């Protein structure tokens, strides 16, 4: 079941609440998903977590998000399928792919993710600063 984690709203110089960007994190490894969400929330993002690909797709279709971060190797629906389906629905979608690899290693999976439309790719384990840099870079893209 999805989990939504919110950062506290901040106000800008005029006292108006700043719009927090929303991120969907899809990973079947619940601990990894929660760790990423914690980092992102502490940086001021609103994060929704999905623990499988089908749930992630359903959440995206229902709510839309500014960014999707997806693992590539998952049991029911792999990240490459998720990227393909999301890009079919929204060619401008911002996606970050992540993987610890498998038999072929992370490099092959991440190369395919990039070819399918992921804007950035990260190898697990992911360092906090690498995650935040990738997120800010991708969110700054038109």
Indicate the topology.
Elements: E1 3-5, E2 22-26, H1 30-42, E3 46-50, H2 53-63, E4 67-71, H3 79-89, E5 95-99, H4 106-116, E6 120-123, H5 128-139
Helix pairs in contact: 2-3, 3-4
Structure notes:
- The chain has 142 residues and is an alpha/beta fold.
- The protein has a single domain, classed as Response regulator (Rossmann fold), CATH 3.40.50.
- Helices cover 41% and strands 19% of the residues.
- Strands 1-3-2-4-5-6 form a 6-stranded mixed β-sheet, with helices on both faces.
- Helix 3 (79-89) links the parallel strand 4 (67-71) and strand 5.
- Helix 2 runs parallel beside helix 3 (79-89).
- The longest helix is centred in the N-terminal third of the chain and has 13 residues, at 30-42.
- The chain is globular, with a radius of gyration of 14 Å.
- The N and C termini lie far apart (31 Å).
Nutshell version of this structure?
With 142 residues, the chain is of the alpha/beta class.
How many separate structural domains? 1
Instruction: Please work out how many helical segments DSSP would assign.
Output: 5
**Count of beta strands:** 6
Oligomer: single chain
Mean pLDDT, to the nearest integer, reads 87
Predict the CATH topology.
Rossmann fold
Secondary-structure content class: alpha/beta
| Tertiary shape | globular
Which value, in Å, is the CA radius of gyration?
A: 14 Å
Q: Could you give a short account of the major beta sheet?
A: 6 strands, mixed
Name of the CATH homologous superfamily: Response regulator
Percent helix among the residues? Answer: 40-55%
CATH architecture: 3-Layer(aba) Sandwich
Distance between the termini: 31 Å
Strand content: 15-25%
């Amino acid at each position: 079941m999805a989990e939504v984690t919110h950062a506290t709203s901040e106000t800008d110089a005029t006292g108006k609440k700043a719009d927090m960007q929303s991120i969907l994190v899809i990973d079947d490894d619940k601990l990894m998903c929660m760790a990423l969400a914690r980092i992102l929330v502490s940086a001021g993002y609103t994060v929704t977590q999905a623990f499988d690909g089908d749930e992630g797709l359903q959440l995206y279709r229902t709510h839309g998000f500014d960014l999707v971060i997806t693992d590539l190797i998952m049991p029911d629906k792999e990240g490459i399928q998720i990227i393909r389906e999301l890009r079919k629905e929204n060619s401008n979608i911002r996606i970050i792919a992540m993987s610890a690899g498998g038999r072929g290693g992370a490099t092959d999976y991440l190369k395919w993710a990039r070819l399918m439309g992921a804007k950035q790719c990260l190898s697990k384990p992911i360092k906090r600063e690498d995650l935040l840099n990738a997120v800010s870079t991708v969110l700054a893209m038109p």
